[in-house]
Fold:
Amino acid sequence: MSRPIVLVHGAWHGPWCWERVTPFLDAAGAEWTAVDLPSVAAADSGASDQDDAVAVRAALDALPGRAPAILLGHSRGGRVISEAGDHDRVGHLVYLAALLNEKNISQSTLFSPDLPKALLYGADGTSRVNPELGMAVFYNDCSEDDYAWATANLRAQSHREAALQANAPRRTKPSTYVICSRDNAIPAIAQRQMAESAGKIIEWEVGHSPFANQPDKVAALLIDLSQA
Structure:
C-alpha cells in the first residue's frame, strides 16, 4: 500500500502551485492532499505559522487509513512541516528548497539580498511578490508562461510568527532535503547548510520553483517515497 502525500506550499503561494505535479501523482495512483495555509489564505487576519501548522495537522487528521504520510514543505513551508511533523501520521519529511532552521543559523543569512527587493509591503504587515521583479528571484529558470501562471495566482502573505519547536520532528523522523542549486531566493549555500540537519540530501540543478517547470521531477521523488 502506498503512503499518502501531503503538500505544503511556501509564502505567497497556495495549493494551486502543485497542480502541475498532481497529475503525475494521480497517474501513479498516489493519494495526496494539498493544504491551503491560513497565513496566505487569511493573510489580512494576521494568521501565523502556528496557525499554518494547525491546518497541516488537520489535513493529517483527515487522511484515511493508517499508512504513514510523506509531508513535503516548499520554501517557508519547511518551517510549517517542522512544527506539524510530530503528528503520528507523518512518516517522512521532505524539504524542497525549504527553511530547516537550527537555533545556531541566523535567519538573515538564509535569504538572497534580492528577495526583499522583489516584494511589495503593505501597511497591514503583509507582503506580495512584485510582478515586475519576482521572476528573477522566484522563477528565474522558468518560462514567461510559467511566471504568468504564477503571478495570476500569487497572494498576500502574513508575516506574523509564533514560537515554534525548532524542528524537533526532523530529529526523530526520516527526512530528505532537496537542494535547488539555481535558487535565487534561498541560495544553494544556505540550503546546503540547512540540509546538513536532514537524514538524506538530494541536489537538483533547478531554481526555487521546480513545481512550475520540472513537476515530473518533484512527482517522481514523492512517488518513490510513497511506495518505499
